[in-house]
Amino acid sequence: MRRKTKLIHGGVAGDPHTGAVSVPIYQVSTYKQEGVGGHKGYEYSRTGNPTRHALEELIKDLEEGYAGFAFSSGMAAITAVMMLFNSGDHVILTDDVYGGTYRVMTKVLHRLGIESTFVDTSDLTNIEKQLRPNTKAIYIETPTNPLLKITDLKEAAAIAKRHGLLTIVDNTFSTPYWQTPIALGADIVVHSATKYLGGHSDVVAGLVVVNSEPLATDLHFIQNSTGGILGPQDSWLLMRGIKTLGIRMEEHEQNTRKIVEFLAGHPAVKNIYYPGLETHPNHEIAKKQMRGFGGMVSFDVGSAEKADQLLNRVQYFTLAESLGAVESLISLPAKMTHASIPQKRREELGITDGLVRISVGLEDVEDLLEDLAQALA
């Protein structure tokens, strides 16, 4: 089954009881049992719900894994994955991760004894240098948020396997339409499904896919025990969004290519971060492991003052957190998505006060180009 077909026909198809083409919303908390333990596959909706199960089967198929899990947010998904580890365990993470990931590792999970080290995983030697006897996993974002660095997933997973570690990949920016990390050797894939998978700024959700039965058993136990599940209404909305993921991702990329070309020739733009550019330091790796470069672009206009002027002038780019929606969004990572990272650390990473991140939407690209032109003038 090809990718666009799988988006529509993957997972659970319709409802066998009524013939409904769309999986119904099972807005139910509990289920009748014929006898003690004699249920029809469902007993309580924290443990399992038919609508959520359909979504979990769909993302499992799309990511080519063993089992899928749906959570109430991307951060709930990441936190559940980190609960696979014990106090005293150590995880190596990409340095340029989403600010919420950095925050949960350094401000919450460290209190439970889970240690973390952040390195530039686009240089694989950095991973080897930070290995410890208690290292249990490598957590990779690729492309990263917001600098769009690329890590060679196949090689990183090979390093992990040599040392008996898990490879965890945040695939939010690429989605399974453009990149399938499990096929490249990853053990676990996580998504903020709020973004491209939902695609319409109307649902908050997180998804996880694992590549083995033992990981599935462990993660389901954590999901059921901690309870950060996705509700049936949001599960249904997410499945509806995923059906159009293919055509949306292709249009996002077409618009983005034209915008990157415009930005590259503009005197007000100092640096552009986009893996589709041949000048991107990891462009060849991106070409090797991705089927498309996506709709996220970051660029530096030189100062916080100039960035604020740009944000105040744009008309079709909505100033907002999040990304991956049908409408174009614009943000200032240093003050928004990555404000939880200390300023010194942001400066070390290159997340300057003049760095602007845009999520290119599905508007007519000529309107978007004209909007950026007048805002940067």
Short key terms for the protein model shown above:
single chain; 15% strand; 377 residues; Aspartate Aminotransferase, domain 1; 12 strands; alpha/beta; 2 domains; 14 helices; seven-stranded mixed β-sheet; globular; 37% helix; five-stranded mixed β-sheet; Aspartate Aminotransferase, domain 2
Brief synopsis:
With 377 residues, the chain is of the alpha/beta class.
**Under the CATH scheme, which class of the largest domain?**
Alpha Beta
What order do the helices and strands follow? Answer: HHEHEHEHEHEHEEHHHEHEHEEHEH
- The Cα radius of gyration reads 21 Å
- What percentage of the residues does DSSP assign to strands (E)? 5-15%
**Main sheet makeup:** 7 strands, mixed
How many domain modules? 2
Topology:
Elements lengths: L2 H7 L40 H14 L3 E5 L2 H9 L7 E5 L4 H10 L6 E5 L5 H5 L5 E7 L11 H10 L3 E5 L4 H4 L9 E5 L13 E5 L2 H14 L5 H12 L1 H20 L6 E3 L9 H7 L6 E5 L3 H10 L4 E2 L9 E3 L11 H7 L5 E5 L5 H12 L1
Describe the structure.
With 377 residues, this protein is an alpha/beta fold. The protein is built from 14 helices and twelve strands. The strands form two sheets. Strands 1-7-6-5-4-2-3 form a seven-stranded mixed β-sheet, with helices on both faces. The chain has a five-stranded mixed β-sheet with strand order 8-9-12-11-10. The protein starts with a helix and ends with a helix.
